[in-house]
Amino acid sequence: MGWLRKILRVGRVVERAGNAPAPTVKPPAGVRGSLQVRHVDAGSCNGCEVEIAGAFGPVYDAEQYGARLVASPRHADALLVTGVVTRNMADPLRNTVAATPKPRVIIACGDCALNRTMFGDAYGVVGAVGDVVPVDVEIPGCPPTPTEIVAALRSVTGK
Ligand code: SF4
Question: Which of 5, 59, 96, 100 is at a distance of 20 to 30 A from 73, taking alpha carbons?
Answer without folding.
Answer: 59
